[in-house]
Amino acid sequence: MITSSARTTVFDIDGTLCFDGRSIDGRIIAAIEACERAGHQLVFASARPVRDLLPVLDGAFPSAVLIGGNGSLVSVDGRVRARAAFGGGELADLLAEVERYRAEYLADGPWDYAYTGPADHPIRSRVDQGNLARKVELADLPAVVKFLVVGATDLPALAEAGRALGMTVNHHLDEAIVDFAPGATTKWEALASLGIDAYNAFGNDINDLDLLRHARHSVRVGAHPGLDGVARVTVAPDPEAVAAEISRLATAAPVH
To answer: Does pTM top 0.85 for this prediction?
Structure first.
């Protein structure tokens, strides 16, 4: 039996709720609906831009707050805004490192995107699934809010170069990708900017570290070693286990 410490619950998407890159199992949807009926404010916080969250949610939870791009984008009441973007000099410095390591990338603007990687890269199947945006040249994006490197001659060195430039960098070793966000942008920082400081959280990857660390009740899905000792609960990365844990939260008594 767990006790809910807040009536806001934040869910990562990929690897936490979504295991095929395209949809969320009905058992998980039903459990989240139970949380909503129990009075939880719902937040979905993802590395995906808001554009790519919408097809996965497939119309469910229209009143939820959406955080995209690991915190660089927020959507409240259906209105999407960029709350963090690379500055001109910051982006130029990153692009110099990209050229140095001959990197291929996905760059997201507030809605549209630029992509230079291979057509068959696994990340490509998650981009603009709903055909809601345009693929454009990097220079045609009004701002760059997230920069994902999908290939380079030396990914670890490129990740370190980004950190040296003061960016938030998540190196996803299992997918061989490196995710760059401007400045200190994280999901947790975006939550704080929305005035949310008491919440429950579900996450699975290193970009959920601060989100889980600051949660009143935190659930790690899977066994990412970077989250060892951070989450209160760990569950298996399968729909039945995740749905069961969400259902327990829905029936928990709140702490005031």
So the answer is: yes
